[in-house]
Request: fold
Amino acid sequence: MNRRFSWFNATSLTLGFAFLYLPILILVIYSFNESKLVTVWAGFSTKWYGELFRNQAFMDAAIVTLKVAVVSSTLATILGTMAAYVLVRGGRFMGRTLFSGMIYAPLVVPDVITGLSLLLLFISIGLDRGVGTIVLAHATFSMCYVSVVVSSRLVSFDRSLEEAALDLGCTPWDAFRSVTLPIIAPAVIAGWLLAFTLSLDDLVIASFASGPSATTLPMKIFSAVRLGVSPEINALSTILISIVTVGVVTSSLLTKRASVRRQQQERAAIAEG
Amino acid sequence: MSRDAAKARGEVFAPWLDENAEPLIRFDRVTKKFGDFVAIDDLSIDIYEREFFALLGPSGCGKTTLMRMLAGFETPTTGKIMLAGKNIGPIPANKRPVNMMFQSYALFPHLTVADNIAFGLKRSDMPKDQIAARVDEMLGLVQLKKFGGRKPHQISGGQRQRVALARALAKSPKLLLLDEPLAALDRKLREETQFELMDIQEKLGTTFVIVTHDQEEAMTVASRVAVMDHGQLIQVATPEAIYETPNSRYVADFIGDINLIEGAVKSVARDIAEISWAESMEPLRATAPEGLTKGANCCFAIRPEKVSISAERPEKAANALPGKVIDIGYLGNMSTYHVELANGQMVKAQVPNQNRLSRHAFTWEDAVWVSFTATAGLVLTA
Reply:
């Protein structure tokens, strides 16, 4: 492998990362701006963070968003895992190909169409729009992401583990609960996190599915930005970014440590013979 | 009657010869189809209690399907499978008194060795306080007492194999199925483990059915071997009988090394058949099987170790053929000579290397005689 420094590599790396992170960096810097004008730097201050926490409308929206994200991603994880299990393990049944194609459809259908069709459905069955309908809508579109993540794990799963569980006296449900689920748990958790983040930042579908009683944070931010970007929003975004960053970094550190420890233990076992 | 007691009295363990013996397992005209593919073709077989029964065959011969039907992972398309006189067809895998040891071992990676072994016991009606004792007993049986608290990835391949065995035996099944149990081990460990398996089987008296494509393994461990091909049983017999008196070209060729010479029966007189096999060559003389008729097409089969090789024509040999050494394979404990006969037929002869420093008697291109007695070879018609 060529490990020497090269100008080409350095330039492409810098450009790539600048392209990805420059906008976010600017947003973070301006969240500490003293001035009310977003584009004029007037010295360092954390006052917009204080303003943000005193802004009841933002706080309410944040709580609604978290509630929706937790409930809808849990719902999506249960449904998505079930769907993945049936599609991977169910064997051949009537219409299996159709189902496996259709489960991925929401990945490519534009959000506007998903949102609109859900809105029409809610109106036609007479469901009052609010937090409940946003939860349903988010579960609907994020469950297919969960099912993709979980089924890719199930495909590489050694089927004889389930058979061994049956052989040792488990009912199929017991085998799933005590063997399959613990082993695919990382994929299920990853699916939940994916559904959670999708729900956190969804604007389009939430706008269609919500009623006057429920406003999510992305909806609130979007409507606030239309009246002009305030530094408060920069502060809010910075908080969101740091939460996400901390989460991603911790989880990847944990995975890395677990895999290193596992490799060490395997080597030790082989050395012992 | 226990196998040890029988041994002590000098009797041979052979319930399949006893007409009154009740089989533990009976396959009664079982057929299994996957779509159009016939995996098991109208197969009937009896397996007796305390047997170590080996299913042997190339991949795709149906041996694994047969085993999976016993475990309950597949159901026969037609026919019945009886276990201790009861049709087990409608009984699901988790309710059968049958346990299986998987080729991949299928150890649960999230559970410790002890929890793996206890897994089946926790799902039985065994009281909780007895489970720990049973787990301890099983760990002792496979000599893993120190490793109960480890996870499967923290032990070596050979130890994993033993955990899988202990887990499958923990519930004291009537029947233990072993799917290529030693395939993942290296050669030396595999040989040791074969004897361990036999010891454990003898100690517990559980009926073992093993699936393998390794004929040496089948011959070593089994009380009887069933050679399979295309979903059918070709021969079911003791390892000795399979090796010394195969019933067909297929079995003869599949088990061990053998010379096969195609020919036709020239004459049959006083149990000795003469087989003509090439023009200008002397006919071969061999013990005639019952019902061999003159003129029938047949195959003369002889194991390389039963062929002698000499510089001069031996005087008393029933069969002696001149030839030329083409190749010598040195295997350490013995050497294999490939001898080309006058008509181009190749014959393999195996000679033990008894003296460490002796030079080889023959070398490439030497003119030699290969010879064998009339009882050394076999006449196969199937």
Observations:
- The longest helix of chain B spans residues 187-204.
- The radius of gyration of chain B is 25 Å.
- The mean pLDDT of chain B is 90.
- Chain B has two domains: 3-97+173-250, 257-380.
